[in-house]
Amino acid sequence: MTRELWMGRGARILPPVVLVAALVAIWGWSAATGLLPRWLLPGPGAVLHEFDVSRAVLLKHAQVTATEALGGCAIGSVLGVAAAMVMTLVAPLRQTLYAYALASRALPLIVFTPVLVIVVGRGIVPVMVIVSVTTYFPVFLGMMRGLERSNPDRMELLYSLSASPTQILWKVQLPSALPYLFAALKVAASTAFVNALVTEWIAANAGLGYLVMVSGQYFRLPLMWAAIFSAALMTLALLGLILLAERLAGRWTQQATEV
Amino acid sequence: MAQLMHRVVLPVTFGLAVLVVWQGVIEAGMVSKLVLTGPVQIVTALITEAPTLLSNGLITLTEAVSGFVLGSLAGLATAALFIRFGALQRAVFPLTILMEAVPVVAILPVLMLWMGNGMAPKIFIAAFLSFFPMLVNAYRGFSNVDADVQELMLSYSASPEQLFWKVRLPAALPFMFTALKLSACSSIVSALVAEWLASDQGLGYLIISYGQGYRVADVWAAATLACLLALAFYGITAAGEKWALSRRTR
Amino acid sequence: MTSASAASLTRADTASEATGAAGLVAQGVSVTFRRGTQVIDALKDVSLNIPRGTRAALIGASGCGKSTLLRVFADIVQPTSGTASHYGLTPAEARANRVYALVQQGSTMLPWRTVIDNVALGLEIAGTSKPERLERAAESLALVGLKGFEKSLPAELSGGMRQRAAIARALTLRPRFLLMDEPFGALDEITRDRLHFELLRILEETGATLFLVTHSIAEAVILSDKVVVMTPRPGRISQVIDVDLGQHRTPATREDPRFGHYELMLRRALHHDA
Ligand SMILES: Nc1ncnc2c1ncn2[C@@H]1O[C@H](COP(=O)(O)OP(=O)(O)O)[C@@H](O)[C@H]1O
Ligand SMILES: [Mg+2]
């Protein structure tokens, strides 16, 4: 049984691992043979080497980006969850604001960055604000949807026990909304770093996005790729963290085993 | 009647109130006009700058829509291949999920080294961002076929191609629209953002250059137009979904 | 028992004495649903009296308004006209004082809670202290034969066991009325048979009044003293049949010739209407 399980997992993990290894090998080979011009894409060795020699620079900029992305993501998520809960309890508020929140889904809010820069200046603040805002809306909408789609039979049961709206929110709606919340958080986590990087292009003088841009301008390609990989690694780390939290909250998110 | 009140009157009143208060704050001189501007000024800027805004908006839209179409088609084709050749799917699919975590837009500086600063890198990014949602969702849709229906087709000894065209493709339609709606948003955003970095045309470029000149009302006007374009693009996609799926349930 | 619910019971008793209301009463209840331009008469002028301590079944074809009538008593659906009452209390008062307990169609559970926390839910909402509500929930679980499954999750139970848990949850409130909406509908016949006699035993032990919605003729006969027959479009009561099979029933009751007689009577009543 366990052996089969393990083999199942092996069959799942092995092909992509082999593929990645093959891609890296091809990348290294074509860089070594000069098939791939060094000014286009340096070899894996060069990028790895860059991680070593530019460690200090990378760390400094990674710290800035991490602060912006994690801070913004946290602020946006907390506000999004809180707003969804308040709007669930206060109907007039929901009726007034929900339509705008729905429309915001399609809006490229990031284009307001220059406006922000004019108001608050360049630095960590405008980037964090943009990350918060772009996190807020998906988390809010996901949470709202989860709260709204709570199983009607469960709501009716609580109602028949004359539970108050707040009790219904805590005991039924909130646990039912957790899968939706985690789905939204995963989206937010993967966009938080991208949005931070991109916003840094025009709103900051530090951070990995800034580093990517500047090293591109100076044709320092290994550094540029090292910065990109650093951002990717941080994104994966954040995603991993959220997956871990989801697993820890497993009992509450077992919607698959819906009873 | 009460429904109308709740769904229309409240939000509209609120929206108007925000605009009025905002304009009032500006008119009262409570914040510097160098920093913030009012709705009236923004509308005026939208009108006076209309020719510039629209011609640049068209460029951004062209980049976004081209990337959207190319990326979605490629994603759909790849999903179909994955369905046909399971081994391919097992190898590549986990990678595609990994790719979603990679800040693809951030490699734009690299792309510009390769492709220059014209429309090509923007289209490429928009296509890239449209590719993965379509691949993932279409694949999920293709696999979403009822075991019963599959058994039925098997009992008719239908070929894999018949199964695909008659069952899988229609079953995947709702999933495909989910992807299209996502990509409609992200392709516009990515085109705009890509124009920030290096470009001498497009709405993204315009926003930056207005910003550098501290032309506050013009920045707002350009950003508003970007929002309107995005809303329209999303709206058309959503309307397409409604049309395609309503005909089915009837 | 908490002082609040004790007070409500006294109030219920005095109210019923004052008005002479017997138990579960509906007077001229009509419910009209509007779905777009469509108007559905789910209930039309329904009057009913289920005396206290009676086991009553409500039977009828699917869609004839059984759940709607039950929901009127549960204060979930408001009648378009007419009134409903429990011991002289309005459904709203009955709900607020937890005079009735509801067992829904399909045993609704909160899947993230253990069985005992599901069963203690009603007391938790009423604000009963944790030790007391866990003790009472454990008692109800023992009553339905689920001792030992306190810490399981609902997903780990079989359909029949979940149904018992739902009944235990209702019993934990020590209700005057058990309102059950097709509680055994999703179960296999073997499990259903066993649960029928468990329910009868529990009713004997607790003295609660039963109002059970079903679409099974045999279930209606074996479980009830009174069968209310409903006909659809508009939903109304066509017949009330008293089932005289004695207070105490066993599997042998089914072999009683009168059992077959009542079954036939009900079948005729239902088909005659159709
Ligand atoms: N909330 C509702 N809105 C509209 N129609 C409803 C609603 N609830 C029930 N109905 C309609 O009322 C009729 C009776 O429903 P119900 O009481 O659930 O029947 P039963 O429980 O006997 O199967 C049905 O035609 C049903 O479609
Ligand atoms: Mg029903």
TrEMBL record, chain A:
<dbReference type="InterPro" id="IPR000515">
    <property type="entry name" value="MetI-like"/>
</dbReference>
<feature type="transmembrane region" description="Helical">
    <location>
        <begin position="69"/>
        <end position="90"/>
    </location>
</feature>
<dbReference type="GO" id="GO:0005886">
    <property type="term" value="C:plasma membrane"/>
</dbReference>
<keyword id="KW-1003">Cell membrane</keyword>
<keyword id="KW-0813">Transport</keyword>
<feature type="transmembrane region" description="Helical">
    <location>
        <begin position="124"/>
        <end position="144"/>
    </location>
</feature>
<keyword id="KW-1133">Transmembrane helix</keyword>
<protein>
    <submittedName>
        <fullName>ABC transporter permease</fullName>
    </submittedName>
</protein>
<dbReference type="InterPro" id="IPR035906">
    <property type="entry name" value="MetI-like_sf"/>
</dbReference>
<dbReference type="Pfam" id="PF00528">
    <property type="entry name" value="BPD_transp_1"/>
</dbReference>
<feature type="domain" description="ABC transmembrane type-1">
    <location>
        <begin position="62"/>
        <end position="245"/>
    </location>
</feature>
<keyword id="KW-0472">Membrane</keyword>
<feature type="transmembrane region" description="Helical">
    <location>
        <begin position="223"/>
        <end position="245"/>
    </location>
</feature>
<keyword id="KW-0812">Transmembrane</keyword>
<feature type="transmembrane region" description="Helical">
    <location>
        <begin position="12"/>
        <end position="32"/>
    </location>
</feature>
TrEMBL record, chain B:
<keyword id="KW-0812">Transmembrane</keyword>
<feature type="transmembrane region" description="Helical">
    <location>
        <begin position="95"/>
        <end position="114"/>
    </location>
</feature>
<dbReference type="GO" id="GO:0005886">
    <property type="term" value="C:plasma membrane"/>
</dbReference>
<feature type="transmembrane region" description="Helical">
    <location>
        <begin position="120"/>
        <end position="139"/>
    </location>
</feature>
<dbReference type="GO" id="GO:0055085">
    <property type="term" value="P:transmembrane transport"/>
</dbReference>
<feature type="transmembrane region" description="Helical">
    <location>
        <begin position="64"/>
        <end position="83"/>
    </location>
</feature>
<feature type="transmembrane region" description="Helical">
    <location>
        <begin position="219"/>
        <end position="240"/>
    </location>
</feature>
<keyword id="KW-1133">Transmembrane helix</keyword>
<feature type="transmembrane region" description="Helical">
    <location>
        <begin position="175"/>
        <end position="199"/>
    </location>
</feature>
<keyword id="KW-1003">Cell membrane</keyword>
<dbReference type="InterPro" id="IPR000515">
    <property type="entry name" value="MetI-like"/>
</dbReference>
<comment type="similarity">
    <text>Belongs to the binding-protein-dependent transport system permease family.</text>
</comment>
<keyword id="KW-0472">Membrane</keyword>
<dbReference type="InterPro" id="IPR035906">
    <property type="entry name" value="MetI-like_sf"/>
</dbReference>
<dbReference type="Pfam" id="PF00528">
    <property type="entry name" value="BPD_transp_1"/>
</dbReference>
From TrEMBL, chain C:
<comment type="similarity">
    <text>Belongs to the ABC transporter superfamily.</text>
</comment>
<dbReference type="InterPro" id="IPR050166">
    <property type="entry name" value="ABC_transporter_ATP-bind"/>
</dbReference>
<dbReference type="GO" id="GO:0016887">
    <property type="term" value="F:ATP hydrolysis activity"/>
</dbReference>
<keyword id="KW-0547">Nucleotide-binding</keyword>
<keyword id="KW-0813">Transport</keyword>
<dbReference type="InterPro" id="IPR003439">
    <property type="entry name" value="ABC_transporter-like_ATP-bd"/>
</dbReference>
<dbReference type="InterPro" id="IPR017871">
    <property type="entry name" value="ABC_transporter-like_CS"/>
</dbReference>
<dbReference type="Pfam" id="PF00005">
    <property type="entry name" value="ABC_tran"/>
</dbReference>
<dbReference type="InterPro" id="IPR027417">
    <property type="entry name" value="P-loop_NTPase"/>
</dbReference>
<protein>
    <submittedName>
        <fullName>ABC transporter ATP-binding protein</fullName>
    </submittedName>
</protein>
<dbReference type="GO" id="GO:0005524">
    <property type="term" value="F:ATP binding"/>
</dbReference>
<keyword id="KW-0067">ATP-binding</keyword>
<feature type="domain" description="ABC transporter">
    <location>
        <begin position="26"/>
        <end position="257"/>
    </location>
</feature>
<dbReference type="InterPro" id="IPR003593">
    <property type="entry name" value="AAA+_ATPase"/>
</dbReference>
